[in-house]
C-alpha cells in the first residue's frame, strides 16, 4: 500500500511575516486559519485583490505575498 504523496511546505509572506504553509494551500484555507469570521475580510496575493469567489481556486505558492485585511468599525 502506498501513502499519498505529500506536498512539501512552501514559504510565503502573510501580512509581512514569513510563514511556512502546506504546498498547494488555497487562499480560502489560509484565511480560515487567520480569521474566525471571514465576513468583512479582504485578501490580496502579490498586490492583487482576489475576489472572495476565487479564494477556493487560488493556490498559494512559494514566495507569494499575502495580505489579509479585516474591516473594523469605529468612530
Automatic annotation (TrEMBL):
<dbReference type="InterPro" id="IPR003749">
    <property type="entry name" value="ThiS/MoaD-like"/>
</dbReference>
<dbReference type="InterPro" id="IPR010035">
    <property type="entry name" value="Thi_S"/>
</dbReference>
<protein>
    <submittedName>
        <fullName>Sulfur carrier protein ThiS</fullName>
    </submittedName>
</protein>
<dbReference type="InterPro" id="IPR016155">
    <property type="entry name" value="Mopterin_synth/thiamin_S_b"/>
</dbReference>
<dbReference type="Pfam" id="PF02597">
    <property type="entry name" value="ThiS"/>
</dbReference>
<dbReference type="InterPro" id="IPR012675">
    <property type="entry name" value="Beta-grasp_dom_sf"/>
</dbReference>
Amino acid at each position: 500500500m502506498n501513502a499519498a504523496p505529500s506536498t512539501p511546505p512552501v514559504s510565503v509572506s502573510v501580512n509581512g511575516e514569513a510563514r511556512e504553509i502546506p504546498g498547494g494551500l488555497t487562499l480560502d484555507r489560509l484565511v480560515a486559519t487567520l480569521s474566525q469570521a471571514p465576513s468583512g475580510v479582504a485578501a490580496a496575493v502579490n498586490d492583487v485583490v482576489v475576489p472572495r469567489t476565487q479564494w477556493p481556486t487560488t493556490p498559494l505558492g512559494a514566495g507569494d505575498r499575502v495580505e489579509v485585511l479585516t474591516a473594523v468599525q469605529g468612530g
